[in-house]
Amino acid sequence: MKIFYGIQGTGNGHITRGRIMARELQAANLEVTYQFSGRPWDKFFDMEVFNGYQWRQGLTFITEKGKIDHLKTVWHSKPLRFFNDIRELDLSSYDLVICDYEPVTAWAARRQNKKTIGISHQYAFHYNIPRAGNDPVSETIMQNFAPVDTRIGLHWHHFHQPLLPPVIETPYVPQQIQKNKIIVYLPFEDQQQVMSILAPFKSFDFLLYSPEVMASVHAHIHCNPLSLQGFQKDLSDCAGIICNAGFELASESLQLGKKILVKPLHAQMEQASNALALQTLGYGRMMPIMDAAIIEQWLHETRAIRVTFPNTARYLVQWIKDGMPQIDQSWCNRIWSEVKVIPVEIP
C-alpha cells in the first residue's frame, strides 16, 4: 500500500503525533510520502524520521500576544498560492491519503476523489464533546479547514463517542521528580510578560521554551530554544507545566503524571474547549489570562493525575492494514479499556 500523509505544521503537536505514526507505519513496511505545511520550511526541526518530505505553505493562523490576529491571518494567507498548491499536488499514484488537519492534502484529495482518513484531535469536534468559545465562524472553519472521508478524533476521554485516545509515546517515568522545576511553553504569549509574571516566584526554577530565545535577567528563569530532545528531557523530571491549551503537549504531560496549568489561546475555540475538558475531567487547571494569583496557587499544589494511554498508533496502523473496516463502538471500547487514571502525589 502506498500512502500520502499530510501533517499540519503550525504547532508542534501535529508533528509529534506524526513522528509516532511514522515509526509505526515504517515498522509495518508501509510506503509513505509525507507533506507538511503551516510554517516556513526553515522552522521545522528534528524531522529525520520522515525520510525527506514535501513542503507547502498551506494555511496558518497568525497570533500576537496570546490571541489570533485575524487581519494578519488574512494578509498572510496567500489564497492564490494555496489554491495552486492544491491543484499541483498529484495524488494519483497513492492508494490512501491520511490527513492530520493539513488543508492542502485534504482539499487535493477531495478534488481528486481520493479516499482520505483524518487522524487528529480536531476531528473529535465533529462529535458531542465539551466545547467552549464556539461561534458560527469557528465551527465553520473547524468543519471545513481540512475535510476528510473518515474522521478519527482523538481525545483524553471518549465522552461516549467513537473517539480514540491520543497518539502518544509510552514514556519512561523517572523515579525522582524535581518538585520545584516547572516547564513553561507559551509560544503565543509575549515572552517578556511571561517572565515578569513568573519573576516573583523565586523558590521555583522555570525552564521557558520559545521559538525566539530571549535573555533572562532572573536567575530562576532559564530561556531555551525549541529542541525536541532537550524539551523531553526537562519534561520527564519536572513537577508541572504551564502551557497553552494545545492537545498533544497536555497529552504527554498527563501520560507523565505532571500537574498542568493551561492558558488557552484567546479566540481559539479548540484551545478553549481543551481547557474546559481538562478542568471538567479533573486533569488540570485553567487560567483565561496570564494571572499571577492562579499561577501561585497552582505552583503550591501537590497533587497531579497520571493517565496511561495505550499505543493508539499501533492500533490505527493495524486497522489500516486490515482494510479500514467501519469503526464501531466495541473496537473503540477495547482500546479505551487500556486507559488507567492514577492520582499522583508530588513530594
Automatic annotation (TrEMBL):
Give the source's domain of life in one word.
Bacteria
What InterPro entries does the annotation carry? MJ1255-like
SUPFAM superfamilies, sorted? UDP-Glycosyltransferase/glycogen phosphorylase
What would be one Pfam family of this protein? Glyco_trans_1_3
Descriptive protein name? Glycosyltransferase
The protein's organism comes out as Nitrosomonas ureae
